[in-house]
Structure formats: structure tokens, C-alpha cells
Amino acid sequence: MIARTIVDVPAAQTDRLFDYIIPDHLEEIVRPGMRIVVPFGPRLIQGFVIEVVQESDVQKLKSIEEVLDPTPVLTDELLTLGEWLAEQTICFRISAYQAMLPAALKTAVTKELHLLTELNELHPYLQPLFKEKRTILWKDAVDALAGHLKHVRNALDQGQLAVHYVVKEKGKKKTEKWIKLADSADETKVKENAHKQRELLLYLKQQDKALRSQEVLSATKTTRANLKALIDKHLVVEWEQETYRDPLQGVEYKQTPALPLTDEQQQVFTPISESVLNNQSETFLLHGVTGSGKTEIYLQTIEQVLNQGKEAIMLVPEISLTPQIVARFKARFGDEVAVMHSGLSTGEKYDEWRRIHRSEVKVVVGARSAVFAPFSKLGLIIMDEEHEMSYKQEDMPRYHTKEVAIKRANYHQCPVILGSATPSLESYARAKKGVYTLLSLKHRVHNRPMPTVEIVDMREELRAGNRSMFSTSLMEALKTRLERKEQSVLFLNRRGYSTFVMCRDCGYVPQCEHCDISLTYHRSNHSLKCHYCGHEEAMPSVCPECEGEHIRFFGTGTQKVEEELTRVLPEARVIRMDVDTTRTKGAHQKLLDAFGHGEADILLGTQMIAKGLDFPNITLVGVLAADAMLHIPDFRSGERTFQLLEQVSGRAGRHEQPGEVLLQSYTPDHYSIQLVTEHNYEGFFDYEMAQRRTAEYPPYRFMALITVSDPDLPNVIEKSQKIADYLKRTMSKETVVLGPVVSPIARIKDRYRYQCMIKYKNEPRVIEALQQILRHYLRDTTQGNLQISLDMHPYFF
Ligand code: ADP
Ligand code: ZN
User: Fold this and answer.
1) Does the residue 697 lie in any domain?
2) Which of 338, 643, 684, 793 could form a disulfide with 352 if both were Cys (CB 3.0 to 4.6 A apart)?
3) Residue 445: CB within 6 Å of ligand 1?
4) For 308-328, how does the pLDDT look when each residue is reduced to its tens digit (9 = 90+)?
């Protein structure tokens, strides 16, 4: 029998199946989807069995060394999904499979040589290697005996040496000791005066079930020696049992029943629930304003899925959403829920994955990679905040979670729900075309009003002589909240701060005359550059719009805001939430809890407080620089700005008291900011779509991004030019190839970066051409350090 295998060497020449002989004693065991250890050149590596077949065309096959899994870690569905993923995202199949599995399953295999006989009997070549040691690493032997490895082989043949393989797993399984009373325990064996032993026995008798040894010892205040005595007398049996590390250990959740749905919720719930009951692979776009009760609909749909005996995946964008969301799911579904996000340790992730793999849970709540949860009876996938960037994976495989979700739902014949208050333009456009089924919730639950939103023109503040980062109206609003003992959220958008130049008098931001994209400031030669087409111009000393002299690039951090805040409002208690204050595990949750318990008046933070917060006492949201993100050199910057502002606004007035939002801005007339005041998503969609059509951006065109990097700048320039030329030659006339130009981040870790971009519509050759590029450059060893990264439908520029 032959195992056709994908090996763990991400390179073009290995992105095919390698055949290995299955030794007789493994024939019953090896199945597709299992991890195995195989020899590859001089090394041993991990591989995934894709197929088991009878014959191979290849002569002189090597054998499998070891099987790592008792059951397949990849189901047939996931094996096929990986193949599709590799093709769609132009990556290696091994990268696709590894992305589906927890890091703990990526093992390191080392080969060791073990001495069986005494040194003096050995060949003199080997003697110096072993000295006093009995075991050495195989690679040390290869290094030391380069060219004379036949001596090792001889020694192996003669039984002087043996080979060992050591498989190192990250986040290994954890075991615990358990005890119970022996079946026929003869108590007379315990002496009258052995009180502690008697106490232990009595306790076990009363509990009458298996218990953790440690728990029993502390409950009875006895020692390990007492227990040992009982075990030795065969009164108690002890064994080791594998346990799961529970990321939510010690957190109590109160069971909450389903809420009676409002009429509007019911109208949305009915079609989804029909789709669940009829096993339809339909994609719904649930467009519901913030606080409209989307989550309650998710919960009730999942309940239906569970009643059918099926499983559900609930995706949330990132860790910031997890604590509050997880609490709501645990409260409804208790132990049926596993969680998966980047905040878990390797071991915790591994354990949660195993609980899913063994069908011990029915619901997973998790971030991006949870879309690969190895359920076999999948009945529903939900993607909350579907517009979020974090659903796009930045490294290989550069997949979009939505596409994977839809693909899996197709396989399982089940629905997908994409939910958002501000859907991505791509999704909304598809829903309008009828590709997805559009469902809307236009009102907050029980008709609570949407918050009132006001724009504060920061140029006027400057004119009035206020140079502080807080406008007069924001200061007053904050003071009122302090008096009324209500809470406020202050949001500082850090992203995009460092790159753009703006006139503080009139709000003018220099843009590329060819691409409609903000120019990026380059400190090195004090110039402005376009990262789409390469256009470059000098940094102006006065504003070309208003001739003011306050044109410069600016930025500020949360820490600076906090200092300023304590200076102007010393009586306010502030909680700051950013990367620095949430570094430690659980810090995030602690800060939110403290705020929830009213231990602070103001929550000051970055992106991580924009979403998911549901606190009744927040009546004011202040956004310090509403336009910060508007000027990132990315054609989606307007969309992101609208989405973010709408999200942040949604934190205010979610319960009884109405909410107020203040947006400070230097460009108050921009449509992305203006339309937030009306909570007008439709208006925004129409306006932005028109822009995209003119500039030929998605969703009217597809895009692909090719980034070339190398420590050697001339090589990067030459190769990226070659790639651009090749693309221009092969693509049809309607397809636009832009570049090569310097990447937005021109150098990372001493590697210079250049990029090309393709904008295309009906161009079947794109995937093929990019695959060619990848294969060509990675096969050609003379390319040295050159790296090529390909991104279909890029989100990060
Ligand atoms: P969204 O996910 O759309 O932001 P949520 O599901 O968080 O909205 O709902 C907002 C608030 O309304 C929450 O506090 C939630 O408990 C409450 N809620 C949702 N549905 C109902 C309902 N049918 N009856 C009463 N309260 C509800
Ligand atoms: Zn340009």
C-alpha cells in the first residue's frame, strides 16, 4: 500500500504528492487526513496523507517512519477544501492545511543516533562523535562525517547503532491523576489508628464516583502518603487521565432563556430558520443597525441547528469582541461551547480544537481560523461584523473567511449568515444583485432611538484659539456626564496617523492626481508619494488650498490624550485601553469589567473599544479625530471610516438613556463623516459605489497585489519590472497592470519592497499567470533571497 503525501516543505517543487510505502504493520492504521513522519532527503519531516493507493509510478520508494495521529486530523471535506484554498489564494497546499490546524499539531521531528555497543568496538570514525554521550543528533553526525556517512550505515547494519525519532509537540497534552474506591475494598486492611486513611476512604465512599486525586487530598486535608498507603493496599485505584485546559475556567455563566423576538426580528428569523430546516446552502446578509438584536437572532438560529443534531460556527472579528460575546453564548448553550481566538495559549487552543474534533462540543465561538473547525455535521456558519478587515488573513494562505465559510456551507448544505450594521460594499452589492439574500433590521430593539451624532469642526476651534485636542463642545459634554454620573467613551483612531499630511487650517490633504488616494509622507527626502502608481511630488511648505502655514503631518497617542485629560478634567476617573494596557492575559476583560461596574467615568481607547461593548450607562461617545483613517493610502479608506464611526457611535444609548456622539474632524464635509450623522448606510453605499465605478475599484473590478522583496534593491527593481512586463504581455487589454512602485512600507527587516497591482474583470488568466510567477521565481535557485507574495483580493496595502 502506498500513501500519497503532501510534505511539510513549502516550496514550489514540493507542492505535489510524494509516494511512500506503508509498512505492513501500519496498513490497518494509515488513512487520508493523518499526519505522518517521512524521510525527505537527509531529513525527517511531517506530511499529510492525502490518498491511500495500491501502486505508484515511482521506483525505489521510501517507507513511512511513523504515524502521528490515531484518527485523521483533516476530514475528507477539509482535505478538498485545502486544495481549493491553495488554488484560489495561490499558496502551497501544506500552508493551507497548516492554517486549518492548531499550532500544536505542527511538530518538529528530530532524528537521533543511539549507541548500542561499547565505543572501543566502533569504527574510529564514530568514536570522537560519541565520546561520553550515548545519543547524538543525526544532523551532528552528518555535519561531522560529511562524505563518510557510509560508516554510520555500516554501524547501523551491524547493530552497533540505532536510530530514534523524537517528535516534539508544542502545547502537549495535559494529564491529571484520578482515583476511586477499588471494587472489592477490604477495609479491615486499614489499621484502627490510621485516622487519615480512614477519613480518605470515608470521603470516597460518600462521593461514590471518580474524583481528581488532588481535589480529594485538599478536601480531606490528607497527604499524598496517606493516599499512597491505600493504593498499596489495593483499596483505592489511581490512574492518569488526559484533561483539557479550559480557557474559561472559573468563569460562571448564568443560564439565560431565549427572548421573545420582536416583530422585526421575527421577520428576519423566519426565512433563516426555513433555510436551516430545509438544509439549504443559502447566504444571508443580515443588515441590522447597531443594537437591533442581531445577536439574539444568531442565538436562536443556533438553537434550531442544535435541535437538529447539528453543529454551528459563530465567527467574531477579533479578541476584542470575544469576552462579552462568549459570555452570551455560554449563558445560552453552556458546555456545548468551545472558544478559539488568539488570546488562548497554544495548549488551550489545542484542547479546544480536540473537543471540537471529538464532537464533545456543538458550537464554536471564535475568530478567523475557527472557520476551519473540524465539525462533521455542520448546520450553520455565522460571521458577525462581516465587513471587518481581520477576516482577511494577511499571510499565506491569504484567504478571506467569508469565501471559506460559503465554500464549507456548500459542502454541508447549510446556510451562512453574514451580519453587520455596515456591510462591506462587496457583500451589499452581491446582496442587491440577489447572490446573497438581503435581510434588514432597521430599528433598535423596542424602538430605542439611534444616538444623535454631531460633527465638531476642528478648524473653527483652531480659529477660535483652542489648540487643545478637545473641542469646547466635547469638554462640556464630558462635564455634563460627570455631573449626571453617566459614562463616556473616548475613541482615538491610531491607524493611519503617521502617514498623511494635512492642513490644520482648512483640512486639505494632498492626493494623487491619478489615483484618488492620499499621498504618503516620506521622511527621508521630505516628499509625498502615491503607493498605487508611483507619482511623487515635493512636500509643500504652504497649503495649496488656503495658503496657510499649518500644513504638516501629525499624530498623537492614547497616552498623550490621557495626560491631557487628567490635566483638564482632574476629577474624572479614566480607564485607558490600548495595546499597552492590555498586554497581559485577561487584562482586557478586567478593564471592561471595571468599567462595567462603574469604576471609571471615561473609557479611553483605540480600535479595540469600537465594537461589541454593550454597557447601559454609556450616553456619550467622543471621537477625537474622525478623519484619521480617511487618509490611509487605500481605496477603502472612506468605507472604513464610515464603518468605524457608525460602530463607535453604536456604543452610545443602547439601553434606556439616549446617546449622544461627537465627531471631531478637520474635514467635516466629507461624505463618510456627514452620512454618519444620519446613520445613512444606503446613502453611503450609493455614493461610495459611484466613486468605485469611476476609479474602477472593487466591487466593480477584482484586484490582485504582487509584492516583491529582497535585501538587494536593484534586484527588487529589476524583478518587479520583469513581473510587470510579463503581466502586461499576458493580460487582455481591459486588464490594468499598475506598477511596479515602492510599497507603502518601503522596507521591512532590511528587505526592500516593490509592488504591482492588477485590476481586472473577466480575466481567466490571472490565477494562472500568478501561479506561473510563483513557480518560476521559487524554482529558480539563482534568485537567492528574493521573495514574492501574492494576494488575490488584497485588503492590506
Ligand atoms: P446587535 O447584535 O444588533 O448589536 P443585540 O443582539 O446586542 O444587538 O441587542 C441589543 C440589546 O437588545 C441587547 O441588550 C439585547 O439583550 C437586547 N435584545 C435583543 N433582542 C431582544 C428582544 N427580542 N427582547 C428584548 N431585548 C432584546
Ligand atoms: Zn497615483
Assistant:
1) no
2) 338
3) yes
4) 999 999 999 875 455 677 888
